[in-house]
Amino acid sequence: MPSTLAATSITPLDLAKTKDPSNNTVLNILVFLQSLDDDGEPNNGIRIPETANAAATTSIDFTLSPAVFRANATFLKLVANSGSVTKTPVTQAFALGNFISTLAASGITVPDPRPSANIAAVAATKVGNSIVLDGSTSTDPKSATLRYNWTLIAPTGSHATLSKANEAKPSFSIDVSGDYVVSLVVDNGALTNSSKLTVKGIDNVFGSSNLYLYGKGTSNYLQTVYIGCLTCDASQPDSICSADPASAYGITSSASSIWDVNSVYGYPDGPFSPWDYPANPATTPLVYYEQLAFNANADAVAFFSVDKDVRNLFEKITGGATTTDARTVAFLEALFATPNARPTDIQAMLCASTGSMGAIGSAVQKAAKKVH
Asked: What single DSSP character describes residue 198?
């Protein structure tokens, strides 16, 4: 450890003979001390176990670059055998944040060299809407270029995924109600900082914009297969109108897409296809139809009847009037497994070829976003 003159209080800044908290020696001392803290809670004071003294048999160079210092074999062995609850070194960002907070509590202000991670607030959002996150107000004190890394924890039943997770403004779709916890880590090449935001998804008239395939399967047990999001914006990977080559639901060449007429879900005569019509519809129970349905929680007991869904869609798209629009009728007929329309016809109505919502898709999307 570097030496310094005795004083009432001594900080790593004094040991490194600098006022810059991003100095390599300062960062390494902070990581060293906090990694050896016995209870791993540096905010309540750092106490280094006696075991660590016995384990320290080789000198360590505190002038190394922080990345090299944290990976130093001697240091790693010392932390692992120190007797601390911490078995691997803490990060520079963690150690520096604790240091700056401790100094501030003592009335000492030092410049924070870490970038700031800022996420713009997002209001509670109805199911079926896309969210564009904004981390562009994140800054670096030395104007260094920032790298972004976003992660998303979605509520149970959601298939939401982040689009452009390494850019300042990623997006995702609210597909079920619940809390969507978004995390942003910004990196200036040397130090990182992070922030979290919870976006609340709230129910709309359909309860969910996820689309499920309901099949009789074996032994007359109802089963569901997720086949994409009907009302999600086409820019989202889960949208059934997505043109992303990696989309499992929007492109005709995907085995998981209802638009692929050669797949188990798109083949018109397939037992798990929404285009398959029961041989005896008059005598086949509705609950056993192979069909698509809006469902609040993907549970068979919450299954909506065909008539109810068609009526809801008609009312929402037309504002309560009876529709005779041929495209709407064809879409709804195909959606609920009548034999009059082919998958390719419905995809053309629902989705534009450029990977955006088509006329009917936009109408359904708009209807799903309306307030009760």
From this structure: E
